[in-house]
Design a protein that fits this description.
single chain; seven-stranded mixed beta sheet; Nucleotidyltransferase, domain 5; eight-stranded mixed beta sheet; alpha/beta; Rossmann fold; 19 strands
Length: 558
C-alpha cells in the first residue's frame, strides 16, 4: 500500500516539488508520527482506510469543467497525501483524528472540485447515520459553487445517481437519510443544524468568525465531524482570515502552546515576498502547478504585475498567498505590519507629542502619543480607541458597527473602550491622557487636534493642564508630514506595540493625490466607505505636531 504523505515528502526533500516551510514542517511531523507516534497517542495511521476514500472519489466523481470535463478525478500527489492523512488517521474505533482542515492555496488550484468530491464521499462512505453535509460561504452564490460541482458530479455518475436524489435545494441520500446542501452566512436557518461535514469556501471574505462558530458548534453531536476550510488569501485584514491563518501557522510550525492534534494546517504560500518573480518558487503557493493550474497563465499574470504595479497586490494575494492591501492602499501590507513590542518601562518617564481624532457617532475616536528616545531612531506610538455602545448593540441592526471589525475583542484586549450611550464620552479621552501622565509619567508637550467636533473637550483638556494645538486638516498641512510618515513605515521605524486597531486603520488608508503646478499634494482617505482610518488620522495629527515642533521636542528626550 502506497504511503502518499511519505511519497509527497520524499518529492519535496529530493527537490522535485517546491514547498513552503509550513508545508514541510507539517508533513515532516505527520510522517514521523506514522512510525513514531507521541506518547499515549490514541491514533494510528491506516493507509488502507485512507486509500479507500481516495478510491471512492477517483472512481465515482467526475470533473465538469475545462479539458478534464467528463473524466474521473485524478488527484495530484499533494491531494493524495492530504486525503490519506485526513481519512487515514483513526483511533481504535476507526474514528478520525483530524477534525478540521485549513487549506490555503493559490487560486485555480482545484479547490472546488476536490471539495465537492469529499462532500459525496462523507455523505455515502463515512458510515454515518443522517449525515448533514453543508457547503457554506459568505454569499449563497459562493456557497453554490461547490454545491453545483457536486450536482454535476452526480449527473455524470450512474453509481451516484443510484443512491442520491437531486431535490430542489439539496442532494438527498435515502440510504442513510443524509444530504448535501448550500448555506450562506445570512441564512435564517443556521441554528438547529446537526452538521457532519462543513466546507467553508473562500472564507477570506468573512469579516468575523460568526459563521464558522455557528457551524462548528453544529457538529457537537457527531462522533467524527470534519470542518473543511479552503481558500486563497484576501484583502480583508484584521478579520477572520488573519486570525485563522495566524493560528494555523502556529500549529503548522508546532509552536509551544499550539499543539493541536485535531487540526491539519496546509498553508501553501511563498516563504517571502521576494520570491514572486522566481518561477522555481511558484509551486510553493500553487500545488499541482502545470497540471491543475496553467503555468503559462501565471507567467502572464506575473509579467503584467511587473508592468502594472496596481495589479501586483492581486497577484501577490491571490496567486501567492502573500498578505497585501488593495491597489488603492497607501502602505503595502508589509510596510503596515510591525509586530515589535517594547516593555512599557522603556517608554515611561518620557515626554511626548499627542494627537487626537474625535468622532460623533459612527467613527472611532482615537487618542495618540508619539514618543522618541535618545540614541534610538525608532518612533514609538501609544494609542487608545473609543466607540459608543450603541454601535455594538445587536438590537440596533441598522447602525451596527461590530460587523466591520472585531471591536468587542479589541475591547477585551484593552485597545478599545466602549462608552455607554450613543456618543463617545470625551471625558474618557481626557482621562486616558491624564492616566498616561500619572501612571506612566509620559507627558505630552502639546496635543494636536482637529477643530471639528472638539466642542467642550478642548477647554476641558486645557483646564486639566494640557497644551492644545489646532491642526488645519487637509493636503496643505498633511502632504509633507504624510510623506515622511510613509517613509518611516517603509523603514519599519514606527513601533506601535503591535496594536491591531492601528494596523487595521493603516491597511484601510488610501492616498488621495492632486498635482498642481508639478507638486504632488496628498491626504489620507478610506479604501472603502465602510472602512475606518481614525487611528491613522490621529497618528498623522500627532506626527504633524512632531514635525512642526521637533526643535522644541528633541531636547526633552530622556
Amino acid at each position: 500500500m502506497i504511503n502518499w504523505p511519505e511519497k509527497y515528502l520524499d518529492a519535496i526533500h529530493s527537490g522535485k516539488i517546491a514547498a513552503s516551510k509550513k508545508i514541510i514542517a507539517t508533513y515532516e511531523r505527520e510522517c514521523y508520527w506514522i512510525h513514531n507516534p507521541p506518547a499515549d497517542f490514541p491514533f494510528h495511521f491506516n493507509a488502507e482506510l485512507g486509500q479507500h476514500h481516495i478510491d471512492f472519489m477517483q472512481h465515482f466523481c467526475k470533473q465538469s469543467k475545462g479539458r478534464s470535463g467528463g473524466k474521473p478525478i485524478q488527484f495530484d500527489l499533494f491531494q493524495l497525501a492530504k486525503m490519506q492523512l485526513v481519512f487515514g488517521w483513526v483511533d481504535e474505533n476507526e474514528l478520525r483524528r483530524i477534525r478540521e482542515v485549513v487549506d490555503i492555496r493559490g487560486r485555480k488550484c482545484g479547490k472546488s472540485t476536490e471539495t465537492a468530491a469529499v462532500a459525496h464521499d462523507v455523505l455515502i462512505n463515512d458510515k454515518e447515520n443522517g449525515p448533514e453535509v453543508y457547503c457554506v460561504a459568505n454569499t449563497r452564490d459562493q456557497a453554490k459553487l461547490v454545491f453545483t460541482e457536486a450536482v454535476n458530479m452526480r449527473a455524470q455518475s450512474p453509481a451516484l445517481r443510484a443512491v442520491e436524489r437531486k431535490r430542489q435545494s439539496d442532494i438527498y441520500c435515502p440510504l442513510n437519510f443524509g444530504s448535501i446542501k448550500p448555506l450562506a452566512s445570512k441564512s435564517d436557518n443556521l441554528d438547529g443544524l446537526n452538521a457532519h461535514f462543513v466546507s467553508q469556501d473562500e472564507w477570506h471574505e468573512q469579516q468575523t468568525s460568526e459563521l464558522y462558530d455557528v457551524m462548528k458548534q453544529s457538529q457537537s453531536f457527531r462522533d467524527q465531524p470534519l470542518y473543511w476550510l479552503v481558500s486563497t488569501n484576501g484583502f480583508r485584514r484584521e478579520a477572520f482570515f488573519d486570525s485563522k491563518y495566524e493560528y494555523a501557522s502556529h500549529v503548522a510550525l508546532w509552536d509551544e502552546g499550539y499543539h493541536d492534534y485535531r487540526l491539519l494546517p496546509l498553508i501553501y504560500e511563498l516563504d517571502s515576498r521576494d520570491e514572486w518573480t522566481k518561477e522555481e518558487c511558484w509551486e510553493k503557493a500553487n500545488p499541482g502547478l502545470g497540471k491543475i493550474k496553467s503555468i503559462q497563465t501565471l507567467r502572464e499574470h506575473v509579467e503584467q504585475a511587473k508592468r502594472d504595479p496596481s495589479f501586483l497586490p492581486t497577484v501577490l494575494t491571490k496567486d501567492f498567498n502573500i498578505s497585501e492591501n488593495t491597489n488603492k492602499a497607501w502602505l503595502t501590507y508589509d510596510e503596515a505590519v510591525n509586530e515589535t513590542v517594547v516593555p512599557m518601562e522603556y517608554l515611561e518617564h518620557s515626554f511626548a507629542i499627542g494627537g487626537c481624532d474625535l468622532s460623533s457617532t459612527t467613527d472611532l475616536t482615537c487618542a495618540t502619543l508619539i514618543i522618541m528616545k535618545p540614541n534610538d531612531d525608532n518612533v514609538y506610538v501609544l494609542q487608545k480607541y473609543f466607540i459608543p455602545e450603541s454601535k455594538l448593540n445587536p438590537e440596533d441592526v441598522a447602525h451596527r458597527s461590530d460587523k466591520e471589525a472585531p471591536y468587542r475583542r479589541w475591547a477585551e484586549l484593552g485597545y478599545l473602550e466602549v462608552c455607554d450611550g450613543a456618543q463617545v464620552d470625551f471625558g474618557k479621552v481626557t482621562q486616558w491622557f491624564v492616566d498616561m501622565v500619572k501612571v506612566h509619567d509620559i507627558r505630552p508637550l502639546r496635543i494636536c487636534y482637529d477643530a471639528a467636533l472638539s466642542g467642550y473637550w478642548v477647554p476641558q483638556m486645557k483646564e486639566t493642564g494640557f497644551e492644545m494645538e489646532k491642526i488645519r486638516q487637509g493636503p496643505f498641512t498633511w502632504t509633507y508630514p504624510m510623506k515622511l510618515l510613509g517613509g518611516a513605515f517603509h523603514e519599519h521605524r514606527i513601533i506601535y506595540q503591535n496594536n491591531p486597531v492601528l494596523r487595521w486603520c493603516l491597511v484601510n488608508t488610501a492616498k488621495k493625490s492632486t498635482n498642481q503646478e508639478g507638486i504632488e499634494s496628498i491626504q489620507p482617505v478610506k479604501t472603502a466607505s465602510n472602512k475606518r482610518i481614525d487611528g491613522m488620522v490621529s497618528l498623522l495629527n500627532a506626527w504633524v505636531g512632531l514635525q512642526n515642533h521637533s526643535d522644541e521636542y528633541l531636547p526633552y528626550l530622556r
